[in-house]
Amino acid sequence: MDSRQPLISLNGVTKVYRMGEIEVQALRGIDLQIVEGEFIAIMGASGSGKSTLMNLIGCLDTPSEGTYLLEDVDVAELDDDSLAMIRNLRIGFVFQSFNLIPRSTALHNVEMPLIYAGDSAQRLERALAALDLVGLADRAHHQPSELSGGQQQRVAIARALITEPAILLADEPTGNLDTESSLEIMRLLTRLNEQGRTIVLITHEGDIATFASRVVRLRDGLILSDDRQVPREPAGAEAPSEQAAAEAVS
Amino acid sequence: MSVGEALRLAWQGLLANRLRSGLTMLGILIGVGAVILLVAVGNGASIKVQNQVQALGSNIVYIYPSSTKAGGVSQGFGSGSTLTQADVNALNDRSQAPDIVTAIPVAQASGNMTWQNQNWFAQTTGSTQDFAQVRAYDIKTGAMFTAADVTSSSKVVVVGQTVVDNLFQGQDPVGQQIKINRVTFTVVGTFASKGSAALGNQDNVAVVPITTAWNYLTGGRGKNISQIVIQATSADTVKAAQTEATNILLNLHQVADPTNPDFTSQSQQDILNATSQITGTLTVLLGAIAAISLVVGGIGIMNIMLVTVTERTREIGIRKAIGARRRDILLQFLIESMVLSGLGGLLGIASGWLIATQITSIKIGSLASLPQPVVSIPSVLLAFGVSVGIGLFFGIYPANRAAGLHPIEALRYE
Ligand SMILES: Nc1ncnc2c1ncn2[C@@H]1O[C@H](COP(=O)(O)OP(=O)(O)OP(=O)(O)O)[C@@H](O)[C@H]1O
Ligand SMILES: [Mg+2]
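A: This is the predicted complex of the input protein with adenosine-5'-triphosphate.
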């Protein structure tokens, strides 16, 4: 076990969805500690509770039972505005369906978290720098509909990074992408992790999970296994930015 | 999120759905435009009527014979011919009535006029040489008859513009002989037009010396005076002049009960008050009708904002996921709805104003006789405030709905 203080600590967490008479037990009792700097992949069959778990970790939803400590703070005791602030500053989200705001430029999408943070210092410069980091500086004024899937996902990653959050949560970020774009995104995530960012990645593709240093498997709302592994060395990881730019131009 | 940022978002939102935003704005535009226009029409009517009351003369008090009550039975308005030349003389006594410039007697006769083979009917008024000054008629051609004409009951007449137009067919009337009730009169002058009137046509008049009227036109009714018109020295002394006249007449007529005199007096101010009450009611009524369409426009805004919020449920989820607080979402949609209605309001003000200034140049049927509408600045400010307020009021429910969405449910919305 890692001796460092956990960033994320889930203890006996359950989640029950009620739809009228029917109750769905999405999570049945999860104990999970994640320390700073980990790259963890959460795997499992469809319906096993992966997204539910990520929503809880991301403070988009609250557990039915159990406690969730984020940086030693019990999330259950926070009000809506404090949760919004945590999502804004401490957590970055990347979704399977990109979830960019339509009809807003890439640049505007990326600077959006800063707007909600009330942080106007060099907002445009920082947004441009974030776009540059994902190799899309030349696409700053394009709307999502004018970008490829891989490019849209990179804009989403830039948006997730703009407030420099401690944790990056990615729910099947490559689920809608072809193999080449998927690898591109994974190289980017690996590089971010190497820079010290904690990454929680949800996937059901074993291939994608090999990039992580730890793999947690879920089944029916319970943790089936929790293994450490040597992450695969991503090809071309040295120069993802240039390569991304090259891909964007081609 | 700052208001400036919210404004930018709102503008983007409106541009994204141009046609829909335009149609929604149209609802407010029509409402605000109607308020501006109809209030302007009401105002125009009211100003016109006021001008006409002013045109009756300046600082005027009218004395009418009043219905006398005999044994509690009313004899009907004007039934007693209680006003006499002696009353007029007393009212013209400066020592008793220092605030009166002149008092003139007026006798009315129906006057069927003929000139050559032309016929016309006009009110024929018998009065003194001061009539033109007191009733604020300007002489256009010729001259007013003189005091000597009154003393000698000369058969001379001064006619108004309507009579000139209808009887003389473009010829110069001065010096012409006309017949009024088969008595031949010489036209000595004409009055300048006072313009069209809501209070009866003041140009369809013929004025003769009152003695002449008594002798030749009023038949067997003797020296009847149907009205005394008093001119006060200034606007400030009208009330005083009215009181002096009342006291003189009460005294002269030996009225025992001052609450039931045999005459009534009415100042121009009394008439103004009565008419402005009527036109004020008219303006409010027109404004109220227009305001209903504003409310309808507001409901249109609410409807569209609800559609917008539903359409953008996913966007709201994304914004919440990246840190938007409840009040950020609330502000965004409230401002969007206020921009929608505020813009509609501005366009409505512009179009209402434009139509108001152009309406009298449109010569379609009865529109042509509309008084010139007068756009009032308070109604413009009010309309703009109300339109923004409508955006606020009707935007609260949709914006609240957006702000209250659960982030996960909003993100899962398809
Ligand atoms: N909002 C909800 N209301 C009701 N039931 C829900 C809701 N969200 C998830 N569930 C149920 O909870 C269970 C876990 O769902 P979850 O989305 O976490 O699965 P997943 O592991 O992410 O699956 P996938 O790989 O298909 O995305 C499923 O049975 C699902 O039907
Ligand atoms: Mg899922």
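Chain B has two domains: 3-53+274-412, 83-261. The radius of gyration of chain B is 33 Å.
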